[in-house]
Amino acid sequence: QNKGIIFDLDGVIVDTAKYHFLAWKNLAESLDIHFNKKQNEQLKGVSRVESLKKILSWGKKSISEERFESLLHQKNKEYLGFVDQMDHSEILPGVLKRLKILKKEAYPIALGSASKNAKTILERVDLLSYFDAIVDGNEVSKAKPNPEVFIKAANLLGVEYQNCVVFEDSIAGIDAANNANMVSVGIGDQEVLQKANFIFKDFSQITDAHFNEILNTMKT
Ligand code: G6P
Ligand code: MG
């Protein structure tokens, strides 16, 4: 196959976006900063460091470097507490079925995530073996909407950028895919993910016909 399939992780493959939200919300509240679901959309796809910077800017707070580091640690600790309780059931609807089909049809498959916990989570839900390449928060220096993460994934797969499709639940991630000249598929809310080339509520809504349609928008 000369077409590459790239998945974001949080909110696309597994239902961890809700855990990131909870952990950030609790942390923000401990600083007397309050943010809503709409603001939370701006945290999706964004690295841990950048997320904390955003939250602090919403609360117009400035803190020492040590405090910043300790808050990052605190957030991740709470997040990993949720992850620890995870099992198979948190794989989002339709994802496993699609991964199986893609594997059978020998499509190159990559993960493109900002999370430093990506491998831990894939292992946890037993999906690691489906991925030919993994690019996560440990390997990228430029956060989405910079296309670096997807460019690296495509390079590892050995597939041309315009022959890759990216599945994303975040605004930053859709922008990153578009910036990389890849086909962007939004998973989630139509209102939020307007700039995606295609949008579905979740993978269970993507039929084989839809999937072929997505792949057929590529030139080769
Ligand atoms: C993903 C999530 C973000 C999260 C980021 C870093 O992009 O959508 O909400 O902040 O990864 O995750 P990490 O697990 O490294 O804190
Ligand atoms: Mg995501």
From TrEMBL:
Superkingdom, taxonomy of origin: Bacteria
What processes does the entry annotate via GO biological process terms?
Answer: carbohydrate metabolic process
The UniProt keywords, alphabetically, are: Carbohydrate metabolism, Isomerase, Magnesium, Metal-binding, Phosphoprotein
Q: Does the keyword Magnesium apply?
A: yes
Q: What is an example of a GO molecular function annotated in this UniProt entry?
A: beta-phosphoglucomutase activity
Pfam families named in the record: Hydrolase
Question: Isomerase: is it a keyword of this entry?
Answer: yes
Q: What class of enzyme is it?
A: isomerase
Q: How is the cofactor bound?
A: Binds 2 magnesium ions per subunit.
- Sequence positions that bind substrate: 8-10, 24, 43-48, 51, 75, 113-117, 144
Question: SUPFAM superfamilies annotated for this entry?
Answer: HAD-like (SSF56784)
EC number assigned by the record: 5.4.2.6
Cofactor requirement: Mg(2+)
Binding residue positions for Mg(2+): D8, D10, E168, D169
What InterPro entries would the database entry show? B-phosphoglucomutase_hydrolase, Beta-PGM, Beta-PGM-like, HAD-like_sf, HAD-SF_hydro_IA, HAD_sf, PGP-like_dom2
Q: Which residues carry the site feature described as Important for catalytic activity and assists the phosphoryl transfer reaction to Asp8 by balancing charge and orienting the reacting groups?
A: S113, K144
User: Per the record, what are the reactions this protein catalyses?
Assistant: beta-D-glucose 1-phosphate = beta-D-glucose 6-phosphate
Where's the active site on this chain?
D8 (nucleophile), D10 (proton donor/acceptor)
Task: Tell me its family.
Answer: Belongs to the HAD-like hydrolase superfamily. CbbY/CbbZ/Gph/YieH family.
Q: What is this protein called?
A: Beta-phosphoglucomutase
Q: Which organism is it from?
A: Psychroflexus salis
Q: Which gene encodes it?
A: pgmB2
